[in-house]
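Review this today:
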Amino acid sequence: MSYNLPMNSPFILENHTEYKEWRDLKLSHYPIQKNKLIFKFDDNIIDERVLNLFKSAINDYNFAIYEFRSEVLDKKLLNFCATLGLTNSVSNLFSDEDNISNITNQEEEKQTSKGEYIPYTNKQLNWHTDGYYYPINSAIKSFLLHCVYPAKEGGENLLMDHEIIYIHIRDHNPDFIDVLMQNNIMEIPNNKNLKESKNISGPVFYVDEKKFLNMRFTSRQKNIIWKKNDMIKKIKKFMYEFINEDEKYLFKLQLKKNQGYIANNVLHKRENYIDGDKKRLLKRLRFSNRLG
């Protein structure tokens, strides 16, 4: 759903002037310069200047990469997030008491059902936003992904700002955006592993109560029910071609040990990988609020 928007919102399709101003500012940050998105932090003291630059990068791109010099324990990850104002963490089926999920390959471990979920395998994880299967009123607005052990080979993360996708689609055909903001355009069936799970319907793009643009999307075809609409096939084809073929707005990231990124739930995917002596291990935290 989109909340009542101010008259000057760039996300009102009739507001051509406001949209152009917002659009031009957004596109002025591209093409991406990788050095502007990676920020190194000291293990003991968080430099306020670097922290502000990190926040500014997320404001421009909706994601940024951080790097610490040595091992980062869970408590430090939580404190780092809190320093950024990310405190409303969200639990899930496999997160611990701190709402941290350990993302590693558990496909062959028979004692856990994690292997049923693609993130807990070494397979490719296709384009999606986190929590696309949540209702809008409990949506995931941001997340942290932190590397404890990288893969021996592969496991590259690909990121694309959802605001860029919105611009690309709207510039091509505003009617596409009108369809994608309908409240029943994409339905996610109930999760068989959760007793009280229900079918969730909602838009692809929506503006939240703080007037920020959000996206819920998955390129997964199985069990995703799209509303029958004459435009849907055209929209999906146009969107897939852009996110799979456009290099200008795509950011590729091979996370190293003690490195991670925070994102305002941009569209992202993961390539398949091969483990070394130590399994690839990432820590994930999700939040119901965004940075910025």
About this structure: The chain is about 25% helix and 25% strand. Helices lie at 16-27, 48-61, 74-83, 162-172, 174-180, 232-245.
